[in-house]
Amino acid sequence: MDDRQKELSRYRLKESEDSLSVAENCLDGGFYKDSINRSYYSAFYAVKSVLALGTVDFKRHKDVIAYFNKEYVAGGTFSRETGRRLSVLKQIREKSDYDDFYIASKEKAVEQLETARLILKEVKDYLEF
């Protein structure tokens, strides 16, 4: 792994932390759909920070998550629970963003935020930055 990969990984980790802060602010302000969105992006950027240390990268979210699950979850680096929670985060974010009549509840936003926090913590522990 070279310095550029580490720099990109750190940048993506910062994006993850920033998105988590925005998700918290949105939750506090009652903007539950926005909180769900930013919680997902926090987890997504965290996963991308792991991928930055390797040799592959993807543009499409489904490809990022599929690769992460295949290489890091199935390989035992991250738990199956983490992989499952990441998939649920993505599903809920898509419903929230794209379904016309999706009503985002405070409870669902809190659940998504907790998942994003968990994934970010696990990634930070793995990266040891």
Word description of this protein:
The chain is mainly α. The chain has a single domain, classed as Four Helix Bundle (Hemerythrin (Met), subunit A) (Up-down Bundle). 78% of the residues lie in helices and 0% in strands. The chain contains 5 helices and no strands. The longest helix has 27 residues. The chain is globular and about 45 Å long. The mean pLDDT is 96.
Query: What is the alpha-carbon Rg in Å?
Result: 14 Å
The average pLDDT value, as a whole number, equals 96
What would the CATH topology be? Four Helix Bundle (Hemerythrin (Met), subunit A)
Percentage of residues in DSSP E strands = under 5%
Low-pLDDT sequence parts: none
Going by CATH, the architecture would be: Up-down Bundle
- How many domains, as an integer? 1
Question: Which bin fits the share of residues in helices?
Answer: over 70%
- Per CATH, the superfamily is Nucleotidyltransferases  domain 2
Would you report the number of β strands? 0
What is the 3D shape? globular
Question: What is the H/E string?
Answer: HHHHH
- DSSP helical segment count: 5
- Which CATH class? Mainly Alpha
Structural class: mainly alpha
